[in-house]
Amino acid sequence: MAKHRMTLYSKPFKSIVSGHKKVEIRLNDEKRRILQIGDLIEFEKLPERIEKVKVKVKDLIVYGTFKEMFAAIPFEDFDCAGWSMEEMLEGMYSIYTRAQEAEWGTLAIRIQKLDEQVEK
């Protein structure tokens, strides 16, 4: 079991802390390709990186595009109930480019929050 560090902006960080977000979305880049089921991820909240929450990787699902991912996984699992496909894609393309998506593909990381308290 390996340990990894990743960063998140405030809203998705709080969604994980609350237990509402069950799937984290990333590019399937070199850093993510080393993830394995059972690994631990410590997410640090941006920008200050003081607050942290730990999760366990429950599943890893690779998709060619974000659209394929969003067609396969309920939006509720991303804590985005009520969003449209267009809103989901617009959100992702505000973080990642279509060129990055084409180069790396996408990765759905199914997670389980480990600790009840957020480290500060």
Automatic annotation (TrEMBL):
Gene3D superfamilies: Hypothetical protein. Pfam families: ASCH. Signal peptide: none annotated. Coiled coil: none annotated. It comes from the Bacteria. Residues 6-115 form the ASCH domain. This is ASC-1-like (ASCH) protein. The lineage of its organism: Bacteria, Bacillati, Bacillota, Bacilli, Bacillales.
